[in-house]
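User: Please predict the structure of the protein below. I'd like the answer in structure-token form so I can feed it into my own downstream comparison script.

Assistant: Understood. Taking the following sequence of 122 residues as input:
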Amino acid sequence: MIAIPSIEKNRLSLRAPLESDLPTMDDYLSKDRMSFIGGPFDDVGTWRTFLASLGHWHLRGFGFWHIEHRESVKMAGALGFLYHFDWPEPELGWNVHHDFEGKGVAYNAALAARRYEETHIN
């Protein structure tokens, strides 16, 4: 098992990816606007993205959390740290799903992730 910590905030939870998130991920990743990250993706591409996220946690000890909007209990996006094999340092990245854009989700999640990073990621 991969130990992925949770971070609880007033409006958001940063939590481990769950298999039940796949339909929401598939809806988000299947849009034409995903062309900037190699998409749009079909359900197999979504599955690979999901597995890559878990693999990053396993190999690096950190990665992307899924952002859950606490009031609606819906996946609002994903956010976390990536450190690819040929990068000089980790990078904070995020995506916010369509219904949650413009509501401060990425900003608030990024603040929480950076606080986590200060003590847990070298």
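That's the full token string. The chain has three helices and five strands.
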